[in-house]
Amino acid sequence: MLLPTATFAARFLVEDAPNNSHTAGAQKQQEPPRRRKAMAEGLLTADASRSLVGSVDAFLFDCDGVIWKGDELIQGVPETLELLRKLGKKLVFVTNNSRKSRRQYSKKFKTLGLEVPEEEIFTSSFAAAMFLKLNNFSPEKKVS
């Protein structure tokens, strides 16, 4: 499994690289072709991916652009979510789009073939409502 994230890739691949005193350019030439390709594409190696996934209990996913683009599911998402669920990871789906309710987002996930309960979905409007509730904001008051 390869995860596209240049920041993590740089950290994990440097730690994963052979430890020697050669210059960075010389070390890059010594890297196996697959690792060089992963480094160039900003992807984690399989070992680094397993290590990362194993070290994390919960994963937060933005919805638009990460899970779907418009009304199309992004390739590899169902398999990734299934694997993370099998590993017992907690999944949380977040969005700053306040136009849809958690129920509406759950329905959108379902139309894309994904079973995501409302409890795993956090929209900006839900976060605002929870903030007001937790801070005992009077229902009689209005925010303008």
From TrEMBL:
Protein's recorded name: 4-nitrophenylphosphatase
Highest classification ranks of the organism: Eukaryota, Viridiplantae, Streptophyta, Embryophyta, Tracheophyta
Pfam families for the chain: Hydrolase_6
InterPro entries: HAD-like_sf (IPR036412), HAD-SF_hydro_IIA (IPR006357), HAD_sf (IPR023214)
GO terms assigned for molecular function: phosphatase activity
Top-rank taxon, per record: Eukaryota
GO CC terms: cytoplasm
Organism: Triticum urartu (Red wild einkorn)
Residues in coiled coil: none
